Amino acid sequence: MSFDEEWASARTTATANVSMRLNQAPGGPAGGSASDYKVKSPELRAIGNEAQELFHWFERDAFHAGAQTGSASDSLTADGFQTGSALWTAWDTWRGQCETLLSACAHIHNHLEATIRSDSNLEEVLISNFSMADIDKNFK
């Protein structure tokens, strides 16, 4: 069997087995029990706090060599060494990667904080609605 034939067979098999699988995971609603996704607010808060702590630590420590690297790069370049521009390129790449990591940490922290607030607000609404339903039931 050629590669193309084998590939076509694999694609056909994969396509034949694809179907919508939402709510069909073991333990999910199709199985008659609650979802297996359970994360409590304290767990989310702890992860968010770790992301924030990493952000502050990394923000402090990642850029301390920037000024010295720039001076060294300029000095090497002025002396005719090609390593000056290579050093600057390495620093610029490092700086870009650090900024990406800092942005990701901030995003994680902010998203989890928003999730906690949203979950808390939803919980209050549900409690209020259930309480009102009990009151209404008793007055009918």
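[next item in queue]
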Amino acid sequence: MLASCGMPVSSLSQDKTVSVMSAEKKEWIGGRAGVRGAIYTIKLKQKNNSVITVKTFRAEGNTIPFVQKNTGNTITISGNLPYKNDDDIKTADQMPAGSSVENPVPQKLNPKDNWIEYTVKGSQVLHKINFEKFISVETSEEPAP
């Protein structure tokens, strides 16, 4: 069970060095039709003074680029996953002669494939921490006029 109120989640998300405080997902829509995606944010609580470096961030079955921000004993991992633009898919009659007829593979999400890998300063050993799911968060921003 995930909570975004700063409480640790299930025991699968616990580790000797860090625990998952929250795992949130905010979906966004761009200024053009079909442009959209999700921002994933994980908050970890450090259990000791070890320096943690996140190496891999996997969200809903996708390895995504991320930034890591350390503030006190809280580590925030944030990554953006743009979804495939469905407007770019064309049928064979819309494509120029000689073009491939294959369509791009649509974005696939696996809501149960969520984890991070990290190292502790002074060690090359990768540690992996899994978590069940992301909590969807509504944005409170008003649309631009």
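[queue empty]
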